[in-house]
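We modelled the chain as a single entity of 85 amino acids. Its sequence is:
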Amino acid sequence: MQDVVIYTTRFCPYCIRAKDLLNSKGVKYREIAVDNDPALREQMARKAGRRTVPQIWIGEHHVGGCDELMALERSRQLDGLLRAG
């Protein structure tokens, strides 16, 4: 299983939705909360090219946000990406 990293904020509904999907699949992930930490948010923005949360990586692949994660699930590509590597 690929390493999964998700940058989040505590009350973001999209973050919660993305984590719920990963949890439902039994995926272990490393959550990096950027609440009240401008340096971590800036680190995320440099890596992702985006300032919004969540930002999700599966292995070295930058998935994007919640919408992109859900699109992978709908197209049945998410499980394969999680297993790749």
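As a brief sanity check on the tokenised model: The chain has one domain: 4-83. The mean pLDDT is 95.
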